[in-house]
């Protein structure tokens, strides 16, 4: 094996629930009796990852997976996703994130549990910070700073 190194990635995650081509769709709606936390909701995602906060910014990958509302007390999500890179040196490689996302917190930390390609045996963490959120449509842009140890 090569020597282990630390890489830092910064990109913007676009969760689009509105419009003709949403990138996040509800596959399990929450029960009717739970409106605040949406406990039980499951959304499948194929969200663009861009270098800047605008959707028109250069796309470097896609976040593919799902998130589920797993808390009855707050907006607490279980995030299970792969950051699949589609550009440059990391083309075809993925970083896997699985963890708790208390969405109301300013900054949320989730573990990097692995990856594929150039990120085989990866470990680290991802910091998520909401950049914009539209409560009417549910659309959100989240800044991710991902720190990954890999070979």
Q: Indicate how many domains the architecture comprises.
A: 1
What's the mean pLDDT score?
Answer: 95
Q: Judging from the principal axes of the Cα atoms, what is the shape? A: globular
Number of helices: 0
Q: Termini distance?
A: 7 Å
Oligomer: single chain
CATH C-level name: Mainly Beta
Report the β-strand fraction as a percent range.
over 45%
Q: Which topology does CATH recognise? A: AOC barrel-like
Strand order of the largest sheet: 1-3-4-5-6-7-8-9
CATH architecture: Beta Barrel
The portion of residues assigned to helices is under 10%
Low-confidence stretches: none
Class derived from helix and strand content: mainly beta
Sheet having the most strands: 8 strands, antiparallel, barrel
Task: Tell me how many strands there are.
Answer: 9
Which value, in Å, is the CA radius of gyration? 15 Å
CATH superfamily: Allene oxide cyclase-like
Question: Order of helices and strands, N to C?
Answer: EEEEEEEEE
Family: Belongs to the plant dirigent protein family.
Keywords: Apoplast, Secreted
Main location: secreted
Protein name: Dirigent protein
Summarize the model shown.
InterPro entries: Allene_oxi_cyc_Dirigent, Dirigent. With 151 residues, the chain is an all-beta fold.
Describe the structure.
The protein has strands spanning 5-15, 24-28, 42-50, 59-69, 76-85, 94-102, 107-116, 123-133, 140-150. It has no helices and nine strands. The protein has an eight-stranded antiparallel beta barrel. It has a single domain, classed as Allene oxide cyclase-like (AOC barrel-like, Beta Barrel). Helix content is 0%, strand content 58%. The relative contact order is 0.23. With 151 residues, the protein is mainly β. The model has no long low-confidence stretch (mean pLDDT 95). It is globular, with a radius of gyration of 15 Å. It is found in: Secreted, Extracellular space, Apoplast. Its main location: secreted. One of its GO terms (biological process) is phenylpropanoid biosynthetic process. This is Dirigent protein. Keywords: Apoplast, Secreted.
């Amino acid at each position: 094996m090569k020597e282990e190194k630390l890489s830092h990635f910064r990109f913007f995650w676009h969760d689009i629930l509105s419009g003709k081509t949403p990138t996040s769709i509800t596959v399990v709606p929450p029960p009717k009796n739970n409106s605040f936390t949406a406990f039980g909701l499951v959304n499948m995602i194929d969200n663009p990852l861009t270098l800047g906060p605008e959707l028109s910014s250069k796309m470097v990958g896609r976040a593919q997976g799902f998130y589920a509302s797993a808390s009855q007390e707050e907006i607490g999500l279980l995030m299970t996703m792969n950051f699949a890179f589609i550009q440059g040196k990391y083309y075809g490689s993925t970083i896997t994130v699985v963890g708790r996302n208390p969405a109301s917190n300013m900054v949320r930390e989730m573990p990097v549990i692995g990856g594929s390609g150039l990120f085989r045996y990866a470990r680290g963490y991802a910091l998520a910070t909401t950049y914009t959120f539209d409560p009417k449509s549910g659309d959100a842009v989240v800044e991710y700073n991902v720190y990954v140890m890999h070979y």
